[in-house]
Write a structure and sequence with these properties.
The structure holds three protein chains of three kinds. Chain A is an all-alpha fold. Chain A is built from eleven helices and no strands. Chain A is elongated. In chain A, about 55% of the residues are buried. Chain B has two domains: about 130 residues, Rossmann fold; about 60 residues, no CATH class. Chain B starts with a strand and ends with a strand. Chain B has seven helices and nine strands; from the N terminus they run βββαββααβαααβαββ. By secondary structure, chain B is of the alpha/beta class. By secondary structure, chain C is mainly α. Chain C has one domain. Chain C has eight helices and no strands. The chains are: A mainly alpha, B alpha/beta, C mainly alpha. Chains in contact: A-B, A-C, B-C.
Chain lengths: ~220, ~210, ~260
């Protein structure tokens, strides 16, 4: 089982390295969106500091939207996904491998970029730390639930926008717990409840998302 | 080894075929023929376990394939209509990955041998985007050279878009597999002379 | 043409319920049921409206405008309930592989979305005269808004997929994921609302309920439920006609040979 996981993660990572442009583009998008907000609401430091957690988190959600199509679309188009469906490895393992590979090239870089971006908003050390941790715990959820949406909309017209429509409402708890935790940290209070709720949501997604994604993939080929 | 009973297939609202039955044993070749759109590819996908039939059962070694999942997949080599070749990977990398997905590993030497046999020796390390359609098809078929331990081969149009040399190679590979006691199900527009212990064909109407 | 709804062993044809699972059998039965539910809806609505608008006492602080709560609360309840109903039918279709179940889910979805929209709109109607704004970020209204997006997602996905079987099954997976998420979403929105103390107004802190008011709301809810059933049955009939249009019985029905 672990062998199958390794195969898929290695394969997808290698593919991403060869398509470096895609990966970098969505990171640049993340930074651009974050920068748009001060341009839109004015550079008043207190206002920006209060809005920062929400802005960074919304930007992370939108950037995830852009990268989610990548999870299955190319494999669907050239027939690789077909081979995965009748692979000697369980489909669940393959799907989890895809989640991991996706997070490693989208969620993780966003998490690492967040402290830099947070500095633009003059966030305190404490808040920056909580922001990074919340993204670390929350971005895998984006890959997980987003993966379900990507599998459901395979080959469907209106794909990208439809995917966003399906999946963004389901991200609301991540946004609330993630951004909320940072706000608490800014107010000097403990972000532990938010982060634990985020962790619980991650745990739940780890159970639901692989099942739903496998079901959706089989449905796409039925 | 394989038993199909009362198989029916629906695409959208159209019933492509129903009541299909056959048995395939060791060394058996099943040739599926019919005009375009008659359900040849659908039939192959049904017996490969990619889709569920509207009615009927597909059994492998006595058990329904729906229940077998990976146990069946380990014994099956499926080359579909699509090549499953990634443009970013070289022919050699594509071959390695497709074998790993089937749960097998092959040494670099073995892979090189396979690619050489199928006529891609000089192109083995080029990214597949620089290969022609026919060459990409050959990458997909290169697996056959290393697939001796798959009891069942299901091949969708393996001879299409191949030139004389590659065509002869693939025919030889199928022949050798049948000799070994493997079973092959394939579709083809072309007339192919393949010797087989038991050979029969199914002709689907449009 | 295939008219069976079940792929289970149809030799055990004991249960009339199983027979009803075929679209062809269900079509006339649904047609007969619609008038009954429509009448029930009216029978519940009349006393409900009477209680809401004439009997229930005028609120001390909010005046007459608060009466919109008799629309708002039943609409909100129905919007939630119908999502569960939709998810139930969709899941049933996925597990048992029946076509009619998927059609029922698709029939229920637009009504659920309508009630969600009604809940939002009535919330706005309440907010404006009472607190001067058309929208407040109160926990319930925000959750209703997200629920509306979930309905839109289901409808959009099932509409975007051409193959009806795939559309039903994909919708079912989405609805199940939605059902699992909805309690979490509600909880998180409530949490969010209590944190950001900006909104001191809340539509959930309704004026203390007199019994007549509760009865009124209950009657309106029952009316909404009967109405939903009637509309869903009506809609599923047109879905059946659309999907089975190549079947012999539909052609005969339409007088086309």
């Amino acid at each position: 089982m672990l062998g199958g996981l390794q195969t898929i993660v290695a394969r997808d990572l290698r593919l991403s390295m060869r398509r470096r442009g895609d990966v970098l583009n969505h990171l640049v998008f993340f930074v651009i969106v974050v920068t748009l907000f001060p341009l839109g609401v004015g550079a008043e430091p207190n206002l920006l500091r209060a809005m920062a957690p929400g802005i960074v988190w919304v930007a992370a959600l939108l950037a995830a939207m852009l990268s989610l199509q990548r999870m299955f679309a190319s494999d669907y188009a050239d027939g690789s996904l077909e081979q995965m469906l009748i692979s000697a490895h369980p489909l669940g393992v393959i799907v989890v491998g895809k989640f991991i590979a996706h997070w490693l090239v989208s969620g993780l870089p966003v998490t690492l970029l967040a402290p830099l971006v947070g500095v633009q908003f003059d966030l305190s050390q404490q808040a920056l730390a909580v922001l990074t941790v919340s993204l670390l715990v929350g971005t895998p959820v984006l890959s997980l639930i987003g993966g379900v949406g990507a599998a459901l909309t395979l080959g469907v017209r209106g794909g990208g926008v439809l995917l966003a429509l399906l999946v963004l409402p389901l991200f609301v708890p991540v946004l609330i717990f993630g951004a909320g935790g940072v706000s608490e940290a800014q107010a000097g209070m403990s972000a532990a409840p938010h982060l634990s709720l985020l962790g619980a949501f991650l745990a739940m997604s780890c159970v639901v998302a692989p099942w739903a994604t496998c079901a959706a993939l089989r449905i796409a080929y039925d | 080894m394989m038993e199909v009973r009362d198989l029916a297939c629906e695409r959208g609202d159209v019933r492509l075929f129903s009541g299909l039955e056959f048995s395939l044993g060791e060394g058996g070749l099943l040739l599926v023929q019919g005009p375009n759109g008659s359900g040849k590819t659908s039939l192959l996908r049904l017996v490969a376990g990619l889709s569920r039939p509207a009615a009927g059962t597909v059994r492998w070694r006595g058990e329904e394939i729906a229940g077998l999942r990976e146990a069946y997949a380990r014994e099956l080599l499926f080359v579909g209509h699509a090549n499953a070749v990634k443009d970013e990977f070289s022919a050699d990398e594509n071959l390695a990955i497709s074998l790993e997905l089937c749960g097998r590993r092959a040494t670099a030497a073995a892979r090189a041998g396979a690619l050489d046999r199928i006529g891609l020796a000089t192109r083995a390390s080029l990214p597949a985007r620089y290969l022609s359609q026919g060459q990409k098809r050959r990458v997909a078929l290169a697996r056959l050279c290393l697939a001796a331990d798959f009891p069942l081969w299901i091949l969708d149009e393996p001879f299409a878009a191949l030139d004389g040399g590659a065509l002869a190679t693939v025919v030889a590979l199928v022949d050798a597999h049948l000799e070994r006691g493997g079973a092959v199900i394939l579709t083809s527009h072309q007339e192919v002379s393949i010797a087989a212990r038991t050979r029969f064909s199914i002709a689907l109407e449009g | 043409m295939a008219t069976e709804g079940y792929r289970l062993d149809s030799e055990t044809s004991g249960s009339w319920l199983l027979k009803l699972a075929a679209p062809q059998a269900f079509f006339p039965v649904a047609g007969r049921m619609i008038p009954w539910f429509a009448v029930l809806a009216v029978l519940f609505a009349l006393p409900g409206l009477y209680l809401s608008f004439f009997v229930a006492p005028t609120d001390f602080q909010q005046g007459e405008a608060y009466r919109v709560i008799f629309l708002h609360v039943p609409a909100a309840w129905m919007s939630m309930f119908l999502y569960l109903v939709m998810a139930f039918w969709a899941a049933l279709g996925l597990i048992l592989n029946t076509r009619l179940s998927g059609m029922m889910a698709s029939a229920v979805a637009p009504t659920g979305a309508m009630f969600t929209f009604l809940a939002l709109w009535s919330g706005a109607l309440w907010g404006k005269p009472t607190w001067g704004t058309w929208w407040v970020w109160d926990a319930r209204l925000t959750s209703e808004l997200i629920l509306l997006f979930l309905y839109f997602g289901f409808i959009a996905l099932t509409n975007a997929i051409d193959d009806p079987r795939r559309a039903d099954r994909a919708g079912a997976v989405l609805a199940i994921v939605g059902v699992v998420n909805i309690p979490i979403i509600y909880f998180s929105v409530k949490w969010w609302n209590t944190l950001h103390q900006g909104a001191s107004v809340s539509l959930t802190r309704a004026p203390s309920m007199a019994t007549t008011m509760l009865v009124g709301m209950l009657l309106m809810s029952l009316a909404a439920w009967m109405y939903s059933i009637a509309v869903a049955l009506w809609r599923v009939r047109s879905i059946i006609l659309e999907r089975e249009r190549d079947a012999q019985w539909v052609r005969e029905l339409r007088g086309v040979q």
